[in-house]
Structures are given as C-alpha cells and as structure tokens.
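Q: My collaborator sent me two sequences in one message, no labels, and asked for predicted structures for both. Can we handle them in order? The first one she listed is below.
A: Yes, handling them in the order given. First sequence, followed by its structure tokens:
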Amino acid sequence: MGTEPSSAAAGGPTAGKRDDHKRSLTLLVVDDYPPGLMLLKQQFSFLGHRVIAATDGKEAFDQWLADDFDAVLTDSRMPLMDGCELAQAIRQHEQSNGRPRCLIIGITANAVPEERARCLAAGMDECFFKPMDLIELDRYLGQRDVAVPTHEIIETTQSEALGARLWALAGQNSDIQRRLVDSLRSSNQADCERLQNLLAARDAESLPDFAHRIRGAAGLIGAEALVTCCLTLEQAYANGASQDALLCQAEVLLQRMRELTADLGRLHQA
C-alpha cells in the first residue's frame, strides 16, 4: 500500500508489558510508504523505544549524522536513496570517522534470498521480510517476554477479514485502527490514481516497480489476492511479456486496488 504472513502487532496499553529492565533504544525507522512507517513507529514505540522516522534514505542519512542511534530499520527499496545505498553511506561514514558501528536492519517485501543477500552485501546486519512479526523484532533487538495480542479471524466477508487483520495490527486499539484505516485509504486512493495515469500513458516499464511497492503494503495487511496480482504482473514483466499483456494485467491490479479502497471505505464508516 511476502512470505507467509505473520501477526505484526502494535498496540496500546492492553497489548502487553515491556520488560522495564531492558534498555530503551533510539531507533531510526525509514519507509517511503506512510501506513508502513506508521505501523513500524507504533510497534517500536510500544516496545518502549524512542523512534525517529524518515521517508527516504537521504533524509534518514541526514538524521543519522545528526543523532546517535542504536539501530536503523529501513525499507530496502525507496526513491532518492534506497535502503542499500543508505547502509553503504552509513558504513562508509563509520569507517572514515571512527564512529561506532550501528545496527542496520533491512525490511523488504521482496521475499527472495537474492534480496536478502543484496541487503547484507550493502552492509546491513540482517534483513526481514514483510509483514514482520513482533516476536522477531523483539528477539533481534534483545527484548524478551513481550506479549503479542491476538485476535481470532473467522470465516467472514473480505472487508470484515481486513478489519480483523487491521485490528490485530493495531494491537486491538480502536484509535490506532481508525488512523491506520484512514492512512491506508488515502494512500491506496493516491496509488489508484497513479496507476490510472500509467495506464493512460501506456507506461509498461514503470509497472513492475509500482507493483512491487503495492505488494509490500498488501503483504503488510494480509491482502493476499492483491499480493498475488502484483506478483503476477512482476513475473510477467520478468518473463518478457508484451506491453499489451502487461497493461491488461495492470487493469486487473487496478480493479483489485479499487476493491481494497471500497473495503477500507466500509471500515472507515463503521
């Protein structure tokens, strides 16, 4: 807006209790997708950490230079400066200026070994696939005994299933869920407009990157039909599909995105 979806959890006071004996970390979180950034900030704030946010690698690098961070968590693919370029810039500065090594964790929707290898080669310490599990975040940052809120998802309509997923992601906090729905709805509407413009311009070359970005957000909220649609388009491009075939698949993607907008609209009105 992955791999096997996992229950990322962010929450309010009922979501769990942080071990007060653990040190609070100062984290730099980087993501160009607003709902994704919002969730990451909420998750790490819940764990008791100080969180600074950036929307691209260049902004993140400037913030990193100006502050002392215990860890950087960055999306691997972003405009201006992507996560790998950010990691390389940080490592080069550390070596040139004798600055202590900062933990860098990559976050990607491209759940293939090659992407993880690319991140590690750039100087990252680890790379996690979206959607991320709170327990994984907890483990890697050295936290223990964090309770993960659960919410049983039963067989129901698509919009109700989405609502249940967002309820779990929001840590069963209605205010956070409402803000998340609004953020996703706004971003998805803007993405629909962008895809319409790409279709009008018959810009098939821009479709794979667009689909990759949408796939990351779709994986985050468990929209598997949308994830599959994005993967189909990306794979079609990689296999040398014609412009007409790619544009046809993009029309299908646009329809799936409109369905998501409608579902989010129903949740917004609920």
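Q: And the one she listed second?
A: Here it is, processed independently of the first:
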Amino acid sequence: MRWRFLWGIKTKLFLFAWTMGILPLVISTVLSSLVISQTLTNRTQGELQTISQVIEQRIDSFLSYRMKMARFWAITPVVILGTPEERTAYFHQILRFYPQYLWIGLTDPEGRIVAATARHSVGQDVGHTVWFQQCKARLEEEICYTYTHGPGSRPALTLQNLPYVGFTIPLFDPQNRFLGTLHAAVKMEVVAEHIQDIRIGQSGGVLLVGSQGEVIADIDGLALSSLGNVSSLRSYRRARSGQAGIIREANLNGRDAFINFAPLGGPRGCLGWSILVTQDTDEIFTASRAQLKLSAAILLLGTLFILAGSFFLLDRGIAEPLRQLMEGVRAVCLGDLSHRVKVQGQDELGKLAEAFNQMGASLQEKGEALQAKSKELEGYIYTISHDLRSPLCSIQGYASLLAKEYQAALGEEGRRYLERIRGNVRQMEELIEGLLELSRAGRMSASLTYESSGRILKEVQEELSYQLEQEKARLVIGPGLPLIYCDRRAIHQVFANLIGNALSAVKERPCPTIEVGILKNGSSGCHFYVRDNGVGIDRVDHQRIFEPFQSLFAQAGKREGREERKGLGLAIVKRIIQAHGGEIWVESEPDRGAAFHFTLPESDHQK
C-alpha cells in the first residue's frame, strides 16, 4: 500500500512539474543569446563610429592642407605681379609636383579667367558665380565648394566633366584693392582614395555622400553613377541636419544593417558632405547565431531524452488510463453498456475506473429492463393495431354496403353521415398504419447495404410526381449525392416523409420550391438537408414536432385551411435516423421556410 500511495496522482503531477524544470535552462540559453547579441551590437557600433571619425579626420586634413597650399600660392609674387604666361607656367609646374589637383586658374577683378592650366579656360567669364561674388564682396576669406555632376550640381568651370573640390582664394594689392581670385580644383578621385583602404568584414562599406544625397564614392572608388542616391535613408537625413550617431535600418541593397552617420563639413564647413559607414547585421550575428543553434541542438537532444522518460511514465500512469476511460465513455455513448475499463492501481484514476465500471453495470441493468419494457410496449401497439383493424374493416365494409344498397333511402343527411363514418374509418386506418410504422421504425433490417442516395431520391420523386404536379411545386435534387450504408426501405421512407411534409408547407405559396442535397460528405459521415420555402415553423415547436402525435401544421393548418396531419411522420423519421446512428434537427422561422437536416455517420465497413 505504501508504494501504491507513492505512485498516486500527486506524485505523477510532481514528476511532470520536475520535467518542466528544464524551462530555466531554456530561459538561460535565450538570455545568453540576447547578452551575446547586445555585446556584438555595442562592439560593432564602437568600431563603425571609430572608422567614421578616422575617415572624417583624413578627408578634413587632406582638404585643409590643399586649401592651405592654394592660399600660399595666392600670395606668391608670380601670381600677384607676373604676366599671364608666367602665371600659366607656374600653375603647370604646380600640377607636375601636385598631381592631386585637376586645374588651377586666375581671374581678373571682373571674373574673367586670365591664366589657367587648361588653355580653353582662358577668357571664360565666371563673374556670375556665387563663390566669385562672395570673394569680391569680401564676404569670405576663401571659398570651398564641390562639383559632383550629380542631381542639381552645376559646374562653375567645365573641367572635362570630372568631379572635383574647388578652392577660391581672393587676391588683394597692398592698398587692399581686389585684384581677382585664384581657383584650384582638387580631383575627387584623390579624395575618394582616403576610404579605399578601409575594410569592414565581408559586407561592410563606407559611403561618401554629397549635399544632394548622391553617393560620391565608396570603398571601391568613385561611384557617382553606380550607387545612386541615399536621400531616402534616415541616417543620411540625420547627418545632413548636423547630427552624428548610429541606427539600424535597411541599406541601399535592402538588407538590414547598422549605419553610422556623421556630417563632413570640410575646410570652413562649406562642403555639406556626409559619411555613412555600414555593416550588415547578418554578418555581425552569424557567429552568435551558429553558437545559438549549437546550444539549441544540444538542449533539444537533452530535452528529448528527459521528456521521453517523462512521457513514458506519464503515459503509463495517466494518459493510458485516461484513454481507456475515454474509450469506455465513447462506447457507452454509442450504446455498448457492457463495456468495462481495466482498473490499474488504487490511485485516483484507478478509483475513477472502478466507479465507471459500476456506473456501466448499473446502466446496463437499467437499460436491459427499459429495453424489455419498450419491446413489450411495441408488442402491445402491434397487437392492438392489428386487433383494431378487424372491426374497422367491418365498419368500412358495412358503410360501403349501405352506400351501395340504401343510398336512395338514406336521404341527403343520411348520406352525409355515412360519408363522415367512412372518412373517420379512413383516418383510423391511417393512424393505425402510422402506429405500426412507428413500432417498426426503430428496427432496421438485419443486412445493411450500400445504396445510392441519388437513386433513392429519384424513386421518391417519381412516387410524389402527382402531388408535385398538383401543387405546382418544383423539386430540386442537388449534385454529388453519395453512396450510403443504410436500410434502403427506411431511408426511402425518410426522404418521402420529409418531402411530403415540405409539400404541405409550400401549399398555396408563390413559386413553391423544395431542395434536397448534401452539405458534407467526408470521413465523419454524410449531412443531408431538405429545404422548402413554405410557411415555416415557430422556434418553440422545433423539438415538439419530432414527438408522436404532434402535427407539423396543427396551427398553420387552422390558420390557412390545411388538412391537419396526424403527427407520426417526423416521429418515424427521427426513429429511423437514430437507428442508423445519426441525428435530425430543423432550422426554421415563421414565413421563412424550413430546412430539415439529418446526418448518417460513417459505418465500420467504410473505415
């Protein structure tokens, strides 16, 4: 008894709870992965920020030095006092020593180029340009601007249509009179070289972006025509507004990435560029994801091993007894009151099994007694019905004889009484026949067969063709009617009774229509319906109409002049359907027609 107590339901639940103790291990693994992910994120953000700062310092230092050189050349004697030929030769000499420059030129006080490294530039008028006007008005000591031949970019000078960074230095004589400007253009490709040696993993990159969002260069060099515009990126817009930081968003390729952004003003802050340093998140987290997958695989194997043992114990101790109890309940519901379950142990489930078996025995005993009573009552009904037929036949015979032999002597009133006698006899015969059918309805034939429900309905349609024609009613039989495993005669009667009731319901209705079809045909059985557009049925009568001697049109008949029926047709239908293991119900509202539904379950032969 001690061991039986230890293996009670509480102990089994404790074992299940112990099994669930593996949850902390799962939670710790998930938390570890989150910590690793956050660590990688912080490290990546720091690296990208450092790279951005290095690039900014490189480019700013390079351009500042180039402007400083241009400022130095602007005060040399040859530039201030030399002839155009001497100045041009001097500029060419500078280009030989400093190939980073694309072009160097000098303007007079009116903005006309008087000396330049490119002969075609001499004589060109740049007096209308903003940088020249600002220098002449002494608004700026020097000007820095860019030409990238991107959207909205207009060159002040035509220099082989190449992108460049331009520096403009104003010139003054000792009396502080404006003499013109010295203009130097630095090759953009030289600027781009400052980011080409930077490598950030396999997917990382650096974008040098102009003031209009055009990509000037990436780590592969100038990319003015290949990488497009980044003005749609949040990172660029924030950098353009003067902010610096890092965010996570989709890059130009549509991949999720970390993007570090920073403004790049250049000398005197007049460039208006931005630096975007990116790296795909997939690459960043690849290693951690691989580690997480390995940990998850190990955890899964351990979990499966533990759960296998726990499931075995739970199945033997709880699941199997519960399955047996469920099978027992199902068997009892299907009418097998002799079914018993195996009692395992003396715990709560074992006691429940004992109680179930006791209940089954009690139900079986009472069911057998009730079945015996039911058979006895059916026998009484059958005997009484047969016994009543003999005197009714005699009454009908004598009434017919009176009508034939003494019709003239009876007079009009006598003939009316005689016809009433004959009508009542016919009603009694119909009632007796209904009682006999009701007593037989619960007993199906010993051998059920596969029958075509469509063929049965065609036969019923032919039998009722006269009534359908009289009522001018249309009977619509739906497609896809299946084979059913049934008592053919009984199912024939089901369809005949339901369609007959529908005919009574649609009497004198406009466009009387009766529909018969199937809603469901699958592994769980067949679901048939018989629908009409007749007078309908009150909700309160939906259950009552299936009881014996409850007329379907008791109230409607009185209201609309219909002949009141005896109320056995639907009771017979219900008994037949229940004998087949199915169900029947009605869906209807007054003046909205009625739909009778019934199901026929799948037989053991079909499984």
